[in-house]
Write a structure and sequence with these properties.
The protein has 264 residues and is of the alpha+beta class. It is 19% helix and 45% strand. It is built from four helices and 15 strands. A hairpin with a 2-residue loop joins strand 4 and strand 5.
């Protein structure tokens, strides 16, 4: 399986991640982060465990945090806003041991969680915090963690790492993903720019926004329905570190704010 522009398949080994903090569950966290990074790489990469790799990717976890704020009470129920931030420093080495990439990557996620109110004061159900507290003994493959906002924050960071790795190897940020922030006729504005090594003339694939499915009775997030591919977009202007615009080349439906673009 070859990345566009690559003559031969690329073998990348994702090694164990290090965790700087002295935390009793750091081995589980490191293993979980590694597994999530493996899942984030597109099929165009050949991820190897035992064969001789062309490149080795590793990283140091700088931060994995969870915070809560803004409790709002509604009669006997309330909502607690959770947010999670993940920071990792990734490094990419050639098979000969030469480092060709060192980059700090961030991922974050926020979500409201249903709580209970007692005597007018809400007490958060704290399912997200419970997951963090139990992480030290969790199976690294446990789906409960991956679907938490902490797991999603790690995955977002992993997705952002893919184009950095691609750029270091191929000179093109394959796997780069961005979001549509404004639509004006045939012009579409994106939240990616100079910081993402985007260039005028790059052609990205446009996808409809994923839809989050939430159960009404307890506000539990059941998952996301993936969006479908709706067309192609060509970058026509780079305005700032995180702002660019493009024009729709062809599409089966109109672009909307929140749609996703991917460079592949």
């Amino acid at each position: 399986m070859a990345v566009p522009g690559a003559a031969t398949p690329v073998r990348i080994r994702v090694s164990n991640f290090n965790y700087e903090r002295d935390y009793r569950g750091k081995e589980n966290i490191a293993a979980t982060v590694r597994n999530i990074f493996l899942d984030a790489f597109p099929e165009a990469y050949y991820i190897t465990e035992w064969n001789a790799p062309d490149y080795i990717l590793t990283g140091t976890i700088k931060e994995l945090g969870l915070s809560s704020r803004g409790i709002t009470s509604y009669g006997l129920g309330g909502y607690q806003n959770f947010s999670s931030e993940f920071v990792v420093e990734i490094e990419l080495y050639t098979a000969e041991g030469k480092r060709i990439l060192k980059e700090t990557i961030r991922g974050n996620r926020a979500r409201s969680d249903l709580g209970a109110a007692i005597l007018g004061g809400p007490t958060g159900r704290d399912s997200e915090r419970k997951i963090l507290q139990e992480l030290w003994s969790m199976d690294p493959e446990r789906e409960e963690f991956r679907r938490s906002i902490m797991g999603e924050a790690i995955y977002r960071a992993a997705v952002r790492a893919v184009p950095e790795v691609s750029l270091a190897i191929f000179g093109e940020p394959y796997g780069l993903a961005g979001e549509v922030v404004l639509v004006r006729g045939s012009e579409v504005y994106l939240d990616i720019g100079r910081d993402y090594n985007l260039r005028e003339g790059n052609v990205l694939t446009l996808y409809a926004l994923d839809q989050e499915v939430i159960r009404s009775r307890d506000r539990k997030v059941l998952g996301n329905i993936p969006g479908r591919e709706i067309g192609k977009l060509e970058i026509t202007g780079i305005f700032d570190r995180e702002l660019s615009k493009g024009i729709i080349l062809d599409s089966v439906s109109a672009a909307q704010k929140g749609d996703i673009v991917i460079f592949k």
